[in-house]
Amino acid sequence: MHKFILPALLLAFATSTALAAPVLKADVSVNHPVITVGDMFSDAGLLAERALFRAPEPGTTGIVSLDAVRAAARKAGLTDYSQEGLLSVRVERRATVVDTTVLSGLISADLAVRGLLPQGGELHTRFDNPSLSYNAEAVETPVTLLALRYQPGAASFAARFQVAGMDLPVDVSGSIDLLVEVPHLAASLKAGAVLSPADIEMKRVSLAFADQSGVENLNDLVGKQLRRNSRAGVMLKAADVTEPLAVRRNTEVTVLLRTGPMTLTVVGQSLGDAATGQPVQVMNSVSRKILNGVATANGAVEITTAAAKLQVAGL
Asked: Which intervals hold domain SAF (predicted)?
């Protein structure tokens, strides 16, 4: 007789489980536009995917009366369920906030793909309506950029976005300011100072302003010499620097004449300023003759013309 007890108990448990009535939930939270039987009831079974009614807008909450639940459930084919003393159901539709920061990020990404955002550049977007904010469905991609109208060099833009959970796309407009990092003087320096990396700090300025001003790259400034006294914070332009002077005007220099393995040196006076490799005239301190040469990195002047070599060789 005992061998019949266990199968009977299992059958009774399976039957009771199969016949368990769905239970109405007190709180429902969804991230899609239609409330289903499975959203509203626990243990909804085969009816779980059937629609009951539209969900509230993303980011909002609604209260559904039992009469409304009863009517919608009846249409879906659900008549036997437990409401466990509930008088209403609170329905929430989850949302992701899409604001100007999110929209600006999509615009920046689009410009980068199109090659319109300089390397290391930063985009500042000013919207005509700075308080723009949308409640999108809480999905992986809450908003998509559909179209962007923007011309390089122009400030204004117009964009169209599709926000998840909204039937129609939204159109926004505003202006774009592209910022780039450019070199600025870190401390006040006098004319003639040779710039080192420590003398330069990078700050962001408008791309249009940087282009108009002829700003140099950092690598093109290090080792260059300031043309004039400059204060801290000034943006460094091509016109602000020059190659460092190897020879200065009215200073005593060594004049070199190289002939084969032999080098002849005399003392002269520089008649001008010159960077390494630049031509400069010097006066022989003994003969008072004017010689043409080229400034070298160590501050000497090497004779380059045949006539000048003859003048030196004849001394």
From this structure: 180-242
